[in-house]
């Protein structure tokens, strides 16, 4: 499924619908001529087009330090609020250049992106609302340091697609009724769009589920894993197949791989992006 991102070229909701758009990603910035407007949002909403948000000022803003990230996040929050968008809606912060591994890590640890992350707050399931846009190196660092919403561009990625992304900007462009837009592929059902309905995780049952355990909590976990696309029987028996599926899931999501359903694995079963 394809979503489009664009700045000053603004196709209408009707034009996007005719083009088969599954959604759009629109800007917040210090340039009002580039930003998503209330009238534009109303038009997109009327045509059933989901919207995600990206913040960008200058290309290499991610090198300007923690206070810059705090300041930009406050401005992004104010603009999101002015559009009456949900306070649990994330904003992607653009890292629109070929950042080095060292620069990316520094930005996440005590620099720009850490400031944005600490200011934006958390979503329904405790996830950081400071998403990140950038190449593979930036995606890897952002995932490592707790950024939940990841939008990768093919630029500076060397043909690699990171395992944990939610959106992939594939390098394509298209014309929508004369308006130029970049094309993006949806990887996760939750890519930061304003229409996403969060499914909260049930309360952790309070015990670590090991091989050989039985019960309704086991059946609940198995049922949810089946909904995520894993092949196992929801019989309430945590046998070898359930343990194997758990380990594969933990590996996929970068969790501790022990085959045990503890509170982190339990929560991720409901909240982590679903990998196609």
Structural summary, described in words:
The protein is an alpha/beta fold and 276 residues long. It folds into two domains: 2-186, TIM Barrel (Alpha-Beta Barrel), CATH 3.20.20.80; 216-271, no CATH class. Helix content is 34%, strand content 16%. It has helices at 13-18, 38-46, 66-82, 101-110, 112-120, 136-144, 216-227, 240-252, 263-271; strands spanning 2-5, 24-28, 51-55, 91-94, 130-134, 150-153, 167-176, 179-186. It has an eight-stranded mixed β-barrel with strand order 1-2-3-4-5-6-7-8, surrounded by four helices.
CATH overall fold name of the largest domain:
TIM Barrel
Strand composition percent: 15-25%
Number of domains: 2
Low-confidence stretches: none
Instruction: Provide the spatial order of strands within the biggest beta sheet.
Output: 1-2-3-4-5-6-7-8
In CATH, the architecture of the largest domain is Alpha-Beta Barrel
**Under the CATH scheme, which class of the largest domain?**
Alpha Beta
Taking all Cα atoms into account, the compactness measure Rg is 20 Å
H/I helix tally: 9
């Amino acid at each position: 499924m394809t979503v489009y991102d664009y700045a000053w070229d603004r196709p209408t909701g009707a034009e996007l619908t005719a083009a088969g758009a599954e959604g759009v990603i629109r800007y917040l910035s210090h340039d009002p001529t580039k930003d998503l407007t209330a009238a534009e949002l109303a038009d997109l909403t009327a045509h059933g087009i989901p919207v995600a948000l990206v913040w960008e000022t200058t290309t290499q803003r991610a090198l300007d330090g923690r206070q810059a990230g705090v300041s930009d996040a406050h401005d992004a929050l104010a603009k999101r609020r002015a559009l009456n968008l949900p306070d649990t809606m994330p904003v992607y912060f653009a890292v629109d250049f070929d950042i080095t591994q060292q620069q990316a890590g520094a930005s996440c640890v005590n620099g720009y992106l850490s400031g944005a992350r600490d200011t934006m707050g958390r979503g329904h399931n405790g996830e950081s609302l400071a998403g990140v846009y950038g190449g593979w190196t930036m995606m890897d660092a952002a995932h490592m340091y707790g950024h939940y919403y990841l939008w990768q561009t093919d630029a500076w990625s060397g043909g690699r697609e990171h395992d944990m992304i939610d959106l992939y900007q594939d390098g394509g462009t298209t014309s929508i009724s004369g308006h130029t837009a970049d094309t993006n592929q949806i990887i996760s059902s939750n890519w930061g769009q304003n229409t996403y309905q969060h499914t909260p995780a049930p309360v952790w049952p309070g015990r670590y589920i090991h091989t050989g355990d039985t019960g309704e909590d086991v059946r609940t976990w198995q049922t949810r894993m089946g909904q995520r696309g894993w092949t196992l029987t929801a019989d309430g028996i945590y046998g070898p197949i359930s343990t194997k599926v758990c380990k594969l899931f933990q590996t996929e999501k970068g969790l501790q791989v022990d085959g045990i359903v503890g509170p982190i694995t339990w929560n991720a079963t409901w909240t982590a992006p679903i990998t196609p």
